[in-house]
Predict the 3D structure of the following.
Amino acid sequence: MRLLVVGGGGREHALCWALRGEQPDADLFCAPGNPGTAELATNLAIAADDLDRLADAADMHGIDLTVIGPEVPLARGLADRLRAEGRAAFGPSAAAAQLEASKAFAKDVMAEAGIPTAASRTFQDLTAALAYVDRHVEPLVVKASGLAAGKGAVVCATRAEAAGAVRAMLGDRAFGDAGATVVVEDFLVGEEISVLAITDGRDLELLPVSQDHKRLLEGDAGPNTGGMGAYSPVAVATPTVLERTRREVLEPALEEMRRRGTPYTGVLYAGLMVDATDTPWVVEFNCRLGDPETQVVLPLVSGGLTDALWAVARGEGVRPVARRPGEASVTTVLASRGYPDHPEKGAEITIPSRLPRGVTVFHAGTARGADGVLRVNGGRVLNVTAVAPSFAEAQRLSRETADAIQFEGKMFRRDIGWREARRREVAGTR
């Protein structure tokens, strides 16, 4: 089998790691990849959004299956392009990827399908948006409708904060075209979980559920980021919650997409807020595997991932994936100084030559120069994932390994999974 993973971050390193583990003899390529993927695959110096060159590379290397990691190439139609050329691609069409590329579109889908989500209004006019915010109850949420690298949602404690966010998006174009349309919505109360489902547009296979940590600082303080860490499993994701998620969120969304003539295939990511009644409210839909959720979830998959991706890409239905029973996974993100707004690059990175058993370091924003030195090359630099028989052990291993990795300006949260730790402490479990 000849496989191509599109993307160059931690998610794509985790995908290459998982695929290589299942397919040791496969010809594996990654575009553009990073120093981590280079140890598992052949990196191709092609940007993830360069559709022409990616299609040419798939043809040149005789790729059997392309797995598309980031949202931008999906929204621009890479899966459509590859399928039109007769190649199997895992990921939704550009039309279906609008579930992530346009929050306004996603809200319309949810309204038509009767999916639980926060009440909202959509605006393109600054004056109208500000007038609506001025009479909205506090707190409230302002979102850029388009793709904003995971940073387009602003939770506002006051109407004044919300007005500032609206002005930044519609007036100052802080997110460019992604913020030309804004969604103002009610604030949801509960606990967030990330549910990733492999789907052929009708049937579903759920991957292990995780919880992301979006805020930069411990205790969920500071600015919103692309994600500072994640853990799995999550106690909040009870069988009841997952059954309701399937029945009230995922299946209705897929049915509505089919009704619109844009069937959804690939991974449907539902970011949910679970309230005190176990109701799963949709915070957002994403059209791909999450980041850093992929890095924490895939190490809990013990087999069947390649077959599942392959079957969906070829229109052969949904196949099950095997899980590692009784194990927990924790991922800590190491970020560079200045992240998320102005990340510093260039610092030399030192990773211990021997890592503890069960620990994997996934590269995200790294680069290796001509001198062979590994250096910081982005905001989120490395993802330290630990898998262990207990949550407490996985949390400890991830945190201690994050401590042991060195580069100037390193930032990370030491409290990844703090809600789960508190729950288990109260329950007297590990």
